[in-house]
Specification:
The structure is a homodimer of 404-residue chains.
Chain A lengths: L3 E6 L3 H12 L5 E7 L18 E2 L2 H6 L5 E4 L4 H13 L4 E3 L2 H18 L3 E2 L10 H7 L6 E7 L2 H13 L3 H10 L8 H4 L2 H15 L9 E2 L7 H9 L3 E10 L4 E11 L12 E8 L3 E8 L3 H16 L16 E2 L3 E9 L4 H4 L4 E6 L5 E8 H6 L1 H4 L5 E4 L5 E2 L2
Helix pairs in contact in A: 1-11, 3-4, 4-9, 5-9, 6-7
Chain lengths: 404, 404
């Protein structure tokens, strides 16, 4: 097998992790040949000082280097990522990337490009860090049996909710702690409003069911407006609230997907996914539920996932996207009934949300809530209502009622 | 990709499951072409009645059929399995097998045969049923970072211990219930004495560390002699006793492996692996711990794992056993210190077992125990002593002391 000379793009936390991990993996027959960064003059930590002579500020130097036979791209900016990744693929250079935003937004085009150029593009690190979700969906669950992929895909929001539910912290304190520990960014919107989980879910769905759904077409709802009242309500029922992403076949012909806070009871696998961990449940006919659990983010866990992709490139592995060519693929729908809890203060939720059935109603001088059945499409249509400051919604998993 | 015409050998629980699963997997482009069984005249359940015209009593018919391009072998008898599998591979026919005993005993020869004939032989179903352990060790954790694979690999013994610890059943009642439910055979020795877990561990070790260790060279200890005293001792410490198989790198150069009852505390991932489930923890540098959980046995879960291998054969996937050619593979050793609990009545354990250190000692009119450190090689040497009716040993995981 060939020796890999890697052009590494990005040398932040993950990039430095990759530099260290590749150094440890003696049998990988891979080395970092060049590193491209936005600010070549910036001081780097001592433990990666040996990388300094490899650094350049111009990624075209990496693409032009005839020795470099793999680009590993781990920068934050999705636009730059898109430019570098597509340029490399067009030049016939294999790429490993961890940029979930860029991938989720451009996957159809990237798939076409891979096929046209016959060059591999791997990105297992983009979804759930060190948990091999993409690879297993692509290779092991590559058949018609798969019914559902559901899990905790964002470590930052899960850390915050764990602090709230397991340690009794206030949401604001937990968020601050997550930021101090580096689990959440200074602008935590991306994590806590569900975007990070959404982008991962988009990628997962391509490999789970062979269907690409645009991120714009999927309902997401974050955790930032969770209140003590909601927390108490869940606790009284001995449950936790977690931010859950899911894609579910509701019939032979149709599937749905969304990211929402969910009422999680103790007997569920994801109940015990705490702190910054990720956990994914893969459900199928015949094998029932498989649960995978591990570190979803962080420098070295993400880097170890990148290493797995690098090793796969060495043996010319590529995703085949076989499910995309299935004849009887399920179609994406938002026309599906959910059971939800909606808490509100002044917004008149029972009057304004078109519940098909309300099974519980609670009013008080301050907080009120209803539990009822509602169509996901109606939740999407009433997005503004749900965005009101006094409103919070939680999915109560029970069953999906397919309207057909 | 080619269409697969499968010659199925064995039509018991798993074989019938495969027949059903292949029927469900419309996009598999695979069909069962012939079925070989020991007793062709035997009546089969109604839901597989359509298979009856495919049945023969002579497996040579399958091997001679030019249409058949894959043998799926799921019979119990390891000698017959060996004969059929090697004959098929020698004829250049790919094979998928679930026979852990046969594979664990003959893996070096089977690897040579695959290489010589250039024909794939897959067996993910042989270890942990529907959990993709082998495939992930082979493909995703195919690098130097792996440190440990540890888990509950036998569903029957775990079911029994779950009944005892979670439901307060007596061991004998739990064993009987497991037999009635079909989790344990009428001769349960294979499961409860650790042989089943051992054979799986042998296979896992080849794919985890690239080293084949003969089953005869590995210490195993079953759960059949567990007593109320042992159960109470663990319960008082809020722990469970589980039958755990593990292979662990204790240094860069050496690894050890064994199957033993283990003291499992609540914070461990495998603590919550209950009933007939399997759970595997994969630990490595950088990614820390990955946990995989699912159904380890049963007709349809095993069949779904076989389906994954069948689909992999369709795209000419084969195990490459890359780690076997690593230059600096770790070597197997039993020269490693363990911390153990040994309960006894008349056998004078403190005098007869060469503990290097005893940290606890309890004597009473009936049951006595010591907790101490002892070399694994000494446990193997004193096997007869540990086999005495009044003795039971439990591993207390703590750390490994490498003697070097």
């Amino acid at each position: 097998m060939k020796k890999l000379n890697i052009g590494l793009v990005g040398f932040g936390t993950v990039g430095q992790g990759i530099y260290k991990v590749i150094g440890k993996a003696k049998n990988a027959h891979a080395r970092i040949a060049r590193i491209c960064v936005a600010h070549p003059e910036k001081k780097r930590p001592d433990d990666v000082a040996s990388a300094m002579p490899l650094i350049t500020g111009n990624y075209d130097e990496l693409l032009a280097d005839p020795e470099i036979n793999l680009i590993v791209e781990v920068i934050d900016n999705p636009d730059d990522s898109y430019e570098i990744v597509t340029k490399a693929l067009k030049k016939g250079i294999p790429v490993v990337s961890g940029n979930k935003i860029m991938i989720a937004r451009n996957l159809p085009e990237l798939i076409d490009l891979q096929r046209e150029k016959g060059v591999p593009f791997l990105y297992d690190a983009s979804s759930c860090g060190s948990i091999p979700v993409i690879r297993n969906l692509e290779e092991y669950y590559d058949n018609d049996l798969l019914l559902e992929v559901k899990g905790i895909l964002n470590g930052s929001s899960n850390y915050i909710l764990s602090r709230v539910f397991d340690h009794g912290d206030k949401y604001e304190d937990a968020l601050k702690m997550a930021q101090e520990l580096g689990f959440a960014e200074s602008d935590p919107t991306f994590d806590i409003e569900g975007f990070d989980a959404l982008f991962k879910l988009i990628i997962i769905t391509v490999h789970a069911l062979g269907v690409y759904v645009s991120p714009d077409d999927v309902f997401i709802y974050g955790i930032s407006k969770i209140s003590d009242f909601d927390i108490r309500w869940a606790r009284e029922k001995r449950a936790k609230i977690k931010l859950v992403a899911q894609v579910v076949k509701i019939s032979e012909e149709r599937f749905t997907m969304f990211v929402m806070p969910e009422f999680v009871e103790k007997h569920k696998y994801i109940y015990s996914v705490d702190d910054e961990y990720n956990g994914v449940v893969i459900r199928g006919e015949c094998y029932d539920r498989q649960f995978m659990f591990g570190k979803g983010a962080g420098s070295l866990p993400t880097a170890s996932s990148i290493l797995s992709d690098v090793m796969a490139i060495r043996r010319d592995y590529r995703y085949e996207y076989k499910k995309m060519s299935y004849l009887d693929k399920a179609e994406y729908t938002t026309d599906v009934m959910l059971k939800v809890y909606v808490r509100y203060r002044q917004t008149d939720i029972p009057a304004l949300l078109p519940f098909s059935k309300i099974s519980e109603k609670y009013t008080s001088e301050q907080d009120n809530y209803v539990v009822g059945e509602i169509n996901l499409a109606d939740l999407i249509a009433k997005r503004d209502l749900l965005n009101a400051e006094d409103v919070f919604i939680i999915n109560i998993p029970r069953f999906f009622i397919d309207r057909d």
